[in-house]
Amino acid sequence: MNINDEQLKEISLLAIQQLHLERDIANLELQLEEAKNRLNNISQSRIPEAMMAVGMESFKLADGTMVKVEKFYSGKIPDDKQSEAFAWLRSTKNDSLIKREVKCNFGKGEDRAAAELMELLESRGYSATDKQSVHPMTLKSFIREQFESGSEFPAELFGAYVGNKTKIAPAKKAAAMPHHDEL
User: Fold this and answer.
1) What is the pLDDT of residue 183?
2) SS3 category, 109
3) Does the predicted model carry a pTM greater than 0.85?
4) Tens place of pLDDT for every residue, the chain, 183 residues?
């Protein structure tokens, strides 16, 4: 196969374009992450603190946009606390929150063995995994219920967090908002 200089030059240019695009995407992802952090700072800290300082829970902008501070709940069970958190959920009859995924890898032609029970798989020497988890939205709902009911629960096991977050609802016929650079 004969490759001429033009073909090689075109391939080189395409490779350079790919490298530039990969770098651009990495930079944009970093910028997006930084913008999300700035948004969270304003939404979850600066506005709620400023409004609490003057005793406000909500207000309406001149254009009809509604600004309101609401509680939000979040959590994530830390990996090193997972068994303790699951034990607590089971002991308090909240084990319905725990979802379980049993997984086993099989080679070609082992479909019949894949249908057998976990114990049989382990007894035959297959490497199976047994993953337990609580869906993030289920955990968030559970944490909200625990806080709102005043129940005693080990919040640190669930990485539980309660904060305030600003909700902004644009007016029905809002005038064009200035871009943040124009503010």
Assistant:
1) 61
2) coil
3) no
4) 788 999 999 999 999 999 999 999 999 999 999 999 999 999 999 999 999 999 999 999 999 999 999 999 999 999 999 999 999 999 999 999 998 877 766 677 777 666 665 667 678 787 677 777 899 999 999 999 999 999 888 999 999 999 999 999 998 864 555 666 656
Residues 22 and 83 grouped into a single domain: no
Residues 66 and 145 in one domain: yes
What is the DSSP-derived secondary structure letter of residue 127?
-
Tell which residue, 179, 166, 160, has the closest CA to residue 46: 166
The answer to whether residues 68 and 154 belong to one domain is: yes
Burial class (CB in 10 A: 0-12, 13-18, 19+), 134: buried
Closest to 151 in 3D by CA, of 89, 84, 95: 89
Residue 37, token pair as written in the block:
């952090």
Q: Of 59, 75, 77, which Cα lies nearest the Cα of 67?
A: 59
Per-state percent for the chain, helix, strand, coil, to nearest 5: 50, 20, 30
Number of domains in the chain: 3
Which domain range does residue 115 map to? 99-133
